[in-house]
Amino acid sequence: MSDFVLYEQSGGVVTLTLNDPDARNALSNRTQWQAIVGALDRISADMSVKCVIVTGAGSAFCAGGNVKDMKNKAGIAGGDGNTIREGYRSGIQQIPLAFARLDVPAIAAVNGPAVGAGCDLACMCDIRIASDKARFAESFVKLGIIPGDGGAWLLPRVVGYSKAAELTFTGEMIDAQAALACGLVSRVVAPERLMDEARELAGRIAANSGPALRMAKRLMREGQHTRIDTLLELSAAMQALAHQTPEHGAAIDAFLAAMKK
């Protein structure tokens, strides 16, 4: 797949591991961004996949962008204003777009610091589980820049506008317990339990109908920006499809059999 993104599948669950621990899994270059996008598109196209876990190798989840490139006006920070703008649009901004079209539920297993674009990457997932060593920072203003990869859209939808504004305008780091308190993560676990907890949750998700999971996720995503009448029309159409799947029939049979016990 990629040296930067390790792709492992067990049953219906794929684990994507950002694999540059020496650089704290920073999102530094186009090759890395394309590797993430390619992995997500591969998952969406593979109907055997029902859930994905995203995590980081080493001590960090993702350290965000490359500050040295910013200093040296290189990489994504290189060129004139138009060049930088197009570099964002065709580069790192392709990651949130790939997550937006990802059909299966995504769990972020945040093993350590998730800073800047790393915090936003966690917010691109549907569910976040944190090690008690995790730290989060929407730190862009600390570097004199803005959330360039979708954080201004993502973070308010996760923690609400007021808390997102506090995190964005201060750029300050919060620990795992503070992240739990504001709803940025849904649980905090011991570091040695993180992947076991993520896999156990992914397994409970993957035990359900693949088509139903994909359609339910799409409805939730559409519900973030769609009127209720439009969403109901889409729900009716998807429900008609769900009722015709073999998975629906098998689930009904299993439910009725369990009721008889």
From the spread of the alpha carbons, the general shape counts as globular
| Helical percentage | 40-55%
Total count of domains:
2
Biggest β-sheet strands, sense, barrel:
6 strands, mixed
Structural category is: alpha/beta
- The beta-strand count equals 9
Low-confidence stretches: none
Mean pLDDT: 96
Q: What is the H/E string?
A: EEHEHHHEEHEEHHEHEHHHH
- Count of individual helical segments: 12
CATH topology of the largest domain: 2-enoyl-CoA Hydratase, Chain A, domain 1
Distance between the terminal alpha carbons, to the nearest Å?
46 Å
CATH class of the largest domain: Alpha Beta
Name of the CATH architecture of the largest domain: Alpha-Beta Complex
Residues in β-strands, percent: 5-15%
The strand order across the widest sheet is 1-2-3-4-6-9
What value does the Rg take, in angstroms?
Answer: 19 Å
Within CATH, the superfamily of the largest domain carries the name 2-enoyl-CoA Hydratase, Chain A, domain 1
Concise summary:
The chain is an alpha/beta fold and 261 residues long. Helices cover 50% and strands 15% of the residues.
Give an account of the 3D structure.
The protein contains twelve helices and nine strands. The chain has helices spanning 30-45, 67-72, 81-90, 94-101, 117-124, 151-159, 161-170, 176-181, 194-206, 210-222, 228-243, 246-260, and strands at 5-10, 13-18, 51-56, 106-110, 113-115, 127-131, 135-137, 174-175, 187-189. It has a six-stranded mixed β-sheet with strand order 1-2-3-4-6-9, sandwiched between helices. It has a three-stranded mixed β-sheet with strand order 5-7-8. Strand 2, helix 1 and strand 3 (51-56) form a beta-alpha-beta unit. The mean pLDDT is 96.
